[in-house]
């Protein structure tokens, strides 16, 4: 009898401990802190069309921005966008400068060591813009893997990693922004520019006189929202709201707005 009583007491204590730990996790959860604060802080770099960019008024707009608005709306809190340089975007999340990264970030094992990713919300890949004169000569990334070619891309992004991995024999020039890298090709200072399909598609549409476009991605890159580690409540909310938005049509509406048309370009062109 005593043995049964002791066993029950141990079980009860374990349950109390587990309940206390669960409550502690919730208290520390970013989701709980956002609700208490009444504000969702979202980190992004406003320079990646059409995910996040600035309009004529200097406001940050884009696909990720509209998705962030839906998150804040569901939480019943205000939205604050924090424009951050890409090379410090993860470290700023880890030091609590914002609650989540929503900035067209590709899931990679290296990044996953520092942050946790929600389920992917879109899949993109690396494509190539080339000088018009090279159309027909350069048919894939393999043709660029030669010291005689100069390839531009953005520093610290998956285009950087993919270029070094697959086109490492070429001369590689890295730039702080997408625009600088792409302009190198337009100006004839580089033979090719490697970057994500959505951005290159839009850039080619605007500069087709000077460029040729290899529009079949040569990498597979799922994009996802990043949060700090050890936060199952926030992760659960993010994954569930993404499923809900895809199911009720909100995701498709936002997608069509930014990828199904280029009408939004008039808001950023001077």
From TrEMBL:
GO terms for molecular function: ligand-gated monoatomic ion channel activity. It is found in: Cell envelope. This is Extracellular solute-binding protein family 3. InterPro entries: Iontro_rcpt_C (IPR001320), SBP_3_CS (IPR018313), Solute-binding_3/MltF_N (IPR001638). PROSITE patterns: PROKAR_LIPOPROTEIN, SBP_BACTERIAL_3. The keyword Signal applies. Residues 1-20 form the signal peptide. It comes from the Bacteria. GO terms for cellular component: cell envelope; membrane. Residues 39-261 form the Ionotropic glutamate receptor C-terminal domain. Residues 39-262 form the Solute-binding protein family 3/N-terminal domain. It comes from Denitrovibrio acetiphilus (strain DSM 12809 / NBRC 114555 / N2460). Keywords: Signal. Pfam families: SBP_bac_3. Belongs to the bacterial solute-binding protein 3 family. The keyword Signal applies.
